[in-house]
Amino acid sequence: MASRAVGGTGVKSARRPEVRLPALEAFDGGALEPDGDYDGLGFRELDLAGQDGGGARFMDCALTGCALDETRLRHARVLDSVLTGVRGVGTDLSEATLRDVELVDARLGGVQMHGAVLERVVIRGGKIDYLNLRTARLRDVVFEGCVLVEPDFGGAHLARVEFIDCALKRADLTAATLTDVDLRGAVELDIARGVERLAGSVISTAQLMDLAPVLAAQMGIRVEG
User: Fold this and answer.
1) 10 Å Cβ neighbour count for 38?
2) Can you tell me the distance from the alpha carbon of 205 to that of 190, in angstroms, rounded to the nearest whole number?
3) Is 183 exposed, middle or buried (0-12, 13-18, 19+ CB in 10 A)?
4) Which InterPro entries match (predicted)?
5) Number of domains in the chain
6) SS3 category, 187
């Protein structure tokens, strides 16, 4: 397992997915089905808004430029797949499983992923507003070059998670558990709640200075002069 030395200690690096898609068949354009089984399919520029794919399995699939407004994917399993340029508001991925997945240049808002399991996932580029990851389990996850506005990690478990060239705005870490979480690469680190839960993470000296007022307030320290 790769690790980087940090101040005499080490932080374990996230293992990235290695997605190698086979030749894909084009999805026929019909509606998603609950508990459906989708294997080796390409979903391109489709309007999947409001459809119900709860409990479905997506294996070796590519979703490109699809609309996911209010799409219901609760308990879905997304495996060895790539999602590029997807967009939508209110997508429901609660209690879903994403394993060996790349999410690239997404434009999403109000995504429900509470109770979800993310393992070997890269979220690269794009912007996600109000991402709900409460009580989710993230292992080997990389956020890279993206903007997360008011992400909610309340009660979540994060292990080997990296933030690289991304912005976290008004993040909620209430009751979260962090292990080997590397925040040094975040270009903006704004913790609205749960700053005391940063134990188990690594931050830079500059980030520590930026967080000093929040940390002081959390500890009841009054700074004057």
Assistant:
1) 20
2) 15
3) buried
4) 5peptide_repeat, Pentapeptide-BTB/POZ_domain
5) 1
6) coil
Domain that holds residue 191: 32-217
> How many Å apart are CA 96 and CA 56, to the nearest integer?
10
The phi and psi torsions of 219 (rounded to 5 degrees) equal -90, 0
* Position 177, amino acid: T
Determine the pLDDT at residue 2: 40
Supply 58's token pair.
Answer: 């997506």
Helices (H), 29-183: none
Q: Which two tokens stand for residue 184?
A: 């040094």
Residue 148: CATH number of its domain: 2.160.20.80
199 occurs within a structural domain? yes
The DSSP-derived string for 114-139 is TT-EEEEEEEEEEEEES-B-TT-EEE
pLDDT tens-digit series, residues 46-94 = 999 999 999 999 999 999 999 999 999 999 999 999 999 999 999 999 9
For the chain, which ranges sit under pLDDT 50?
Answer: 1-8
Token reading at 97: 């499983």
Residues sharing a CB contact under 8 Å with residue 89, sequence separation 6 or more, in sequence order:
69, 70, 108, 109, 110
- Residue 54 is assigned to a structural domain of this protein: yes
Which of 67, 79, 39, 71 is CA-nearest to residue 53? 71
